[in-house]
Design a protein that fits this description.
The protein has 181 residues and is α+β, with helices and mostly antiparallel strands. The protein has four helices and eight strands. An eight-stranded mixed beta sheet has the order 3-2-1-5-4-6-7-8.
C-alpha cells in the first residue's frame, strides 16, 4: 500500500468536524447535532440594504415636497402629518409612497414617486391603500424606481399586507372590500 500525503485541507476539515461535534444540538436532534434539520435551524442570511435610483429623471417641481405627508403608525393605525408639521390627517385612499434614505415614509395621493423623493434614490417605493387609518394593502408599484419584492421589508410596512406589482396591476387582485359596504 502506498501512503498518501496529507491534504492541505486536512486541518480545516478537522476544525470543521470539531465545531460540528461541539455545537449544541437543535430541537428534535440527538447529541450529534447535524441531520436534515441542521441547515433549516440556521438563520437565513439577510439581504443587503439596497437603494433604488430614479430610472426616469424628469423635471421636478421644487415645491412639490412641501405638499407631501409623512406617515406615522400608532398601535396598528396610521396617520399622516403634513409638511412643516401641519395637522394630523387620517389616510383614507390610495397613496403613492417612498421610503427615503433617511428612513422617513412620504406619501401623497397625486404626486408621483420622483416628486416625493426629489429625484433622489430611495430605500423603497410603491403604493398603499388605507381605509380610515387602517392599511389594507401595499405594493411595489413604481415605474420610476421599480423596487423588487425581495427587498420589500425595506419599506417598513407590514409584510402580511404586501402585494407584488404583478398581483395588483396585472392580475387585478385586490383585497376584499371592508365589511358593511
Amino acid at each position: 500500500m502506498v501512503a498518501r500525503a496529507p491534504s492541505i485541507f486536512a486541518p480545516a476539515a478537522a476544525l470543521l468536524q470539531r465545531r460540528e461535534a461541539t455545537a449544541a444540538p437543535t430541537q428534535g436532534q440527538g447529541p450529534g447535532g447535524g441531520g436534515a434539520g441542521a441547515a433549516a435551524a440556521r438563520p437565513a442570511r439577510p439581504l443587503q440594504q439596497r437603494l433604488y435610483p430614479n430610472l426616469r429623471p424628469v423635471g421636478l417641481d421644487p415645491g412639490a415636497r412641501e405638499q407631501a405627508f409623512s406617515l406615522h403608525e400608532w398601535y396598528g393605525s396610521y396617520g399622516m402629518r403634513g409638511g412643516g408639521g401641519r395637522g394630523l390627517y387620517v389616510p383614507n385612499a390610495r397613496y403613492v409612497f417612498v421610503r427615503t434614505q433617511g428612513g422617513e415614509t412620504l406619501l401623497h395621493p397625486r404626486l408621483r414617486h420622483p416628486a416625493l423623493a426629489q429625484g433622489e434614490p430611495v430605500r423603497y417605493a410603491g403604493e398603499a391603500y388605507f381605509e380610515s387609518g387602517a392599511l389594507r394593502w401595499w405594493s411595489n408599484a413604481s415605474g420610476h424606481y421599480r423596487p423588487d419584492p425581495q427587498h420589500a421589508p425595506q419599506a417598513g410596512l407590514p409584510m402580511a399586507l404586501f402585494r407584488s406589482w404583478d398581483d395588483v396591476v396585472r392580475r387585478g387582485a385586490r383585497p376584499a372590500p371592508a365589511r358593511g359596504k
